């Protein structure tokens, strides 16, 4: 998963992009980058390892000139997390010059790599699938050009052919030098992308009659920047904003379906975002409502004195569990907000070490109590095991551990770092075996059907959900056992 944003403004857009990336920081902490373009077509680009506040200095921001630009925060799922060369945006100089950012994961990278080398005669410098994507787009734009000038119809034709060649998940934003900003979403809409607008103002605050535009991974970015949410970019759709601020849109996929990733609502997105017409916060409340019924069904009466969340993303579900079960809700863990999200940290050893840096158990809340701990999900189990031990060390009499998501039993190949089945604590284990592995007295998971119902309630336009990490059903239909074995052998953990 990553966070992306693109802005077409009347004046300088570098500050808007920087502020947007701060709001998307939860989606990636490995690296970040911003690219801007002047009306002359000159690009300015800066990218670096680390978080947004660490990466950009005043001199870097001053150099990012132009009224059109894009930005990215990266959480590595392909390539090397520590490599600055694989930070986004990526740039190619023909045709016209293209800078591109991408949130998602391509699943036919082997085939595309061969095609680009043997058929398209394009060179790749990294193992990043984003570099693959920008080269595929560039090649298809080159093939679409009938003259020197590029028009929206030719751009949309190129995106149509990108959809024909590329498999997997991709929410994409690109700058085309001298022309404008292009954004498009894969035909299943697996990763989010939201369009917004605001009136352009001149230096004294008077409306100019033109519009400024933004596309971003989450709606909170638009709202914070004073943009009105227009709508989600549709699955398979391409959106092009020219340098004058004119919006052009076209559906570029023959049979689009809206099948967003369920893990966005479980964990990835901020609770104050609305994506695909679904409030993340309200979805998490409904997860708690349904989880409470399962806890009541499988946990002995009297086994729970207090309900506690693992901060922060599980708090809405934990509140609803406590309310519905009629059990006291308490905050037993204090969170150090200066440590990153442990799930998206590279490597098991780093995750394990960071848990106790990130959380501290307050003994006064645990001592002598039967506690129910609620987490949003359990992936590798490293964090959960440490948290359960922390609760015991703080004096808990017994620990029941519940997950607002079902058991993660299968790799996630659409943009989340869950590459290897053997790393997943639920793979090949029963729920009692998982409880024993993690050290819990009782273990409760959300049912798959309950999670799906909790997310989709009140969202009639969503066709289905990608729940592949829970049920092993990959919505693109092209993920084979051979591919999963290859991913396990090559992708970083």
Q: Which helices and strands occur, and which strands form pairs?
A:
Blueprint: E1 2-8, H1 14-23, E2 31-37, E3 43-49, H2 52-55, H3 58-62, E4 68-74, E5 90-92, E6 98-106, H4 109-118, H5 129-144, H6 152-165, E7 168-176, E8 180-185, E9 194-201, E10 207-216, H7 219-224, E11 228-232, E12 237-242, E13 247-251, H8 263-268, E14 274-275, E15 278-279, H9 280-298, E16 306-309, H10 315-325, E17 328-329, E18 333-335, H11 348-358, E19 359-361, H12 363-366, E20 370-375, H13 382-393, E21 398-403, H14 431-438, E22 442-445, H15 448-456, H16 468-471, H17 481-490
Helix pairs in contact: 4-5, 5-6, 9-10, 9-15, 11-13
General description of the model:
By secondary structure, the chain is of the alpha+beta class. It is built from 17 helices and 22 strands. It has helices at 14-23, 52-55, 58-62, 109-118, 129-144, 152-165, 219-224, 263-268, 280-298, 315-325, 348-358, 363-366, 382-393, 431-438, 448-456, 468-471, 481-490; strands at residues 2-8, 31-37, 43-49, 68-74, 90-92, 98-106, 168-176, 180-185, 194-201, 207-216, 228-232, 237-242, 247-251, 274-275, 278-279, 306-309, 328-329, 333-335, 359-361, 370-375, 398-403, 442-445. A seven-stranded antiparallel beta sheet has the order 3-2-4-1-10-9-11. α4 crosses α5 (129-144). The longest helix has 19 residues, at 280-298. The protein starts with a strand and ends with a helix.
